[in-house]
Specification:
The protein is of the alpha+beta class. 46% of the residues lie in helices and 13% in strands. The longest helix is centred in the first third of the chain and has 28 residues. The protein is globular and about 70 Å long.
């Protein structure tokens, strides 16, 4: 009996999709012939929302651009404003920012691990990952007053200093996590079911990665050592010792191995931050909100998010408003150029597996 040509929608309300987006799949049997990404089901229009608000008002918006990983957005926004307004940030504030960004990186990696393990039926691992992520959210709640949208990395530094005993709590978490990651290795990373499903699936060629502007694990998973923290250091990353993990195969499993190795590097960075944390102030004295102005100039800043290079373009016109704002996250090319290409010829059961390996956050696309 000949297989029929059918069209199905994967998402937007589906546990196997990385946010509120939809992928339209043209199938013959279980094999995908064409994939078309549809976005716009959640947050959208961030750039224009920001341009219609003062700098201080716009600050509360940026963390929504990627809900699972809001802190790189705060860092980009703060650094862009600081450059245009001529604001210096204290060394202690820079160390605290790095601590927040690395903890945020770990929360994003745990969300990836939950989604990736769940996409092949390893639900216990997903429950572990969400529970361990919550331990970091507890730290964020104590530090910032919020668990997800922290609004903590603010132009001029950070909103408040570390609570008493906070570094000791972070250190205790690091000790726990170093041992805990061995459980994830045994139950997930080296699990035969995951390896059978992931090896040779969703292969990215090195030349395609370079030509199309892929970032993060999509680059490092096919052997390209690219990381903004090393290539264009910001904050105090040039004072820290860490490696940029890579793999050569370019498939889903290679990207998983890179992410897992990056978690070890984040723990290593956090230990150094705790050991080197300087004394001092955490916030530069800023002008009154009504007198806060950006000079008539523009800037391009970028950080390394858990999913790859994340950049902001910002232009001022001499007023308290941002004349032009543009967000360039990993998701635009990963959800369209890359995902649509990788899904052709794949099986229906591989859709969530491939998608989770790319780190797609839909509001970044409809920004």
């Amino acid at each position: 009996m000949e297989n029929k040509h059918i069209t199905v929608f994967h998402g937007p309300q589906h546990p196997g999709i990385t946010g509120n987006m939809s992928v339209e799949l043209d199938l013959i049997g279980e094999t995908i012939q064409k994939a078309t990404t549809h976005v716009g089901y959640l947050h959208r229009g961030f750039e224009k929302l920001i341009e219609r608000r003062t700098v201080i008002q716009a600050f509360t918006i940026v963390c929504r651009i990627c809900v699972p990983e809001p802190d790189p957005n705060e860092a980009n926004f703060a650094m862009a404003v600081e450059e245009l307004a001529g604001i210096e940030v204290s060394k202690r504030a820079q160390y605290i920012r790095v601590m927040v960004l690395e903890l945020s990186r770990l929360t994003a990696q745990f969300l990836w691990m939950a989604g990736q393990s769940g996409s092949i039926g390893l639900y216990a691992v997903g429950q572990w990952a969400i529970a361990d992520r919550d331990l970091i959210l507890d730290l964020f709640e104590e530090l910032t007053g919020a668990r997800v949208y922290h609004m903590y990395i603010y132009p001029g530094g950070v909103r408040r200093d570390l609570p008493e005993g906070f570094l000791e709590k972070v250190e205790k978490f690091l000790i726990y996590m170093q041992k805990r990651l061995e459980d994830y290795d045994n139950a997930f990373i080296y699990n035969a079911s995951f390896k059978n499903r992931a090896i040779g699936v969703g292969v990215i060629l090195k030349e395609d990665a370079l030509q199309n502007g892929y970032v993060g694990q999509a680059l490092r998973g096919c052997g390209i050592k690219a990381d903004v923290r090393k290539d264009a250091p910001y904050l105090i990353y040039n004072e820290l010792d860490f490696e940029v993990p890579t793999q050569e195969a370019g498939d889903v499993y290679a990207r998983a191995l890179v992410r897992r190795a990056e978690m070890d590097q984040s723990l290593h960075i956090l230990r150094q931050v705790i050991a080197k944390m300087p004394e001092g102030t955490v916030m530069t004295k800023l002008p009154a909100h009504r007198k806060f102005k950006l000079k008539k100039d523009d800037t391009w800043v970028k950080v390394e998010s858990a999913r790859g290079e994340f950049a902001y373009y910002m232009a001022g016109d001499g007023s308290e408003y941002i004349r032009r704002m543009q967000v360039r996250g990993p998701s635009l090319v990963h959800a369209f150029t890359l995902l649509e290409e990788l899904l052709v010829g794949a099986e229906l059961s591989d859709v969530a597996l491939i998608m989770n390996s790319l780190g797609i956050c839909p509001p970044e696309i409809e920004r």
